[in-house]
Amino acid sequence: MNIENMGANSPFIALNDDAVSIPLPPAVLEAIHLRKYFPLRQFKLSGPRKVVHAAEDTSLALYPGRALALVGESGSGKTTMARMLARLYEPTSGTILFRGEPVKGNGRNALKDYHHHVQLVFQDPFSSLNPVHDVRYHLKRPLRLHGHARTATEETEEILALLNRVSLSPAEQFIRKFPHQLSGGQRQRVAIARALAAKPEVLLADEPVSMLDVSIRLDVLNLLLRLKDEEQLALLFITHDIASARYFAEDTLVMYAGQTVEGGPSEEVIQRPRHPYTQLLISAAPDPDRLGPDGKGSVTLPARGEIPSLINPPGGCRFHPRCPHAMPVCSERFPKRTELGGGHWAHCFLYGDGEANPASYKPIAVTPSRSSEGRGKGESGNHASPEVEIQGNAALPSDVSAEG
Ligand SMILES: Nc1ncnc2c1ncn2[C@@H]1O[C@H](COP(=O)(O)OP(=O)(O)OP(=O)(O)O)[C@@H](O)[C@H]1O
Ligand code: SF4
Ligand SMILES: [Mg+2]
């Protein structure tokens, strides 16, 4: 199925500023117009049923050997998306495609087959392991369930191999340890090994390092990247920290209050953010590569207010009550996806309303930055970003550092 115009990330790898691109292999997993409404418990019998509009018409695609970062503030719907993709939540509407075919069936066997291919790593390594069982128990269950170990010898060999793959060595020592004998980073490695035990093609990692000590986050992220490359895993990497997306994911998708607002190659989205919400996120996640030509730069995106309630979300573009560029049309309807060139797209009336031809957009004021020097207007479309300057001084994502 063709996912263009569905809000998914680009099916092309952008190679350089001249938008040379090569086609990607077919997507392994796709979300097509997924929507999730959670009904609220109500004591009144009459009146309309209230729901939380957690994800609205959201599409994405995951490719072998490639990571997609899903970024947004708390409550933007990231975990809801991951849980729908893992089939832990039934979508209110929309379709999930695995290798181009709609996934069907909610029975035990159908879900077991699906989880053979698609695995979720949870945010909290402390609650995701059972404290009364050792590492062997946690790893042997998925090996047996998915038919990857039939004898005790095979089981031990597979478990030791899994522990080595997640760099828990000497593996012979870790196999008998209980969760309370492991550090947070070691537990998350066991959780990753448990997901790998199914031999999946897709790994959904929901903020896999956010509960770990800052000193070990980079190690665990690098482990995920190594596994993605070595095993050609399609990786969904959920994070609050948009700066880390640039380092750890080829593509980035930005969500705000249940709506996907911008996406494309991470380098494009993060170096040249177009949607005012993405600019706001980036302004809060400093990066030295985005310093202005004077070496200083200043963050000036005066977003007002807070994330809206998803029980009664604002109409149209849900960012409009906070957006410094909001226009009357913004509260009337959600803008269609506008292609910005090089696989970069946005849902924002500042750049049009779904037109495919960038030349038709009206440029607005732009402050040049070092990263945009030398890029002619035509190189990634004729768009100019709303005025925003970014400053920063961190070489690594704001909440990540190398182990000392
Ligand atoms: N099971 C549920 N029942 C009702 N509402 C829910 C449920 N799960 C999530 N929500 C609501 O859906 C919205 C999106 O939640 P979600 O957990 O997907 O956000 P998130 O982007 O993962 O946030 P965080 O970064 O804090 O993890 C929130 O308003 C949340 O309260
Ligand atoms: S659509 Fe309107 S309100 Fe939404 S981000 Fe764009 S300008 Fe702002
Ligand atoms: Mg979450």
Describe this structure in words.
The chain has 404 residues and is α/β, with parallel strands linked by helices. It is 25% helix and 19% strand. The chain is built from ten helices and 14 strands. It has helices spanning 78-85, 108-117, 135-145, 152-165, 171-174, 184-196, 214-231, 242-248, 266-271, 276-283, and strands at 12-14, 21-23, 29-39, 51-62, 67-71, 93-98, 101-102, 118-121, 202-206, 234-239, 251-256, 259-265, 338-341, 344-346. The strands form three sheets. The chain has an eight-stranded mixed sheet with strand order 8-9-10-5-11-12-14-13, sandwiched between helices. Helix 3 packs across helix 4 and helix 6 (184-196) packs parallel to helix 7 (214-231). The longest helix is centred in the middle third of the chain and has 18 residues, at 214-231. The protein binds adenosine-5'-triphosphate, iron/sulfur cluster and magnesium ion. Adenosine-5'-triphosphate binds at residues 38, 52, 54, 72, 74-80, 240, 310.
Shape, per Cα inertia axes: globular
**Helical segment count:** 10
**Cofactors and ligands:** adenosine-5'-triphosphate, iron/sulfur cluster, magnesium ion
Which structural class fits the helix and strand makeup? alpha/beta
- Helix-strand sequence: EEEEEHEEHEHHHHEHEHEEHHEE
Mean pLDDT: 81
The CA-CA distance between the termini, in Å, is 47 Å
Q: Let me know the largest β-sheet.
A: 8 strands, mixed
Record the strand order, biggest sheet: 8-9-10-5-11-12-14-13
List the uncertain runs.
1-20, 291-300, 357-404
Q: What is the C-alpha radius of gyration, as a whole number of Å? A: 22 Å
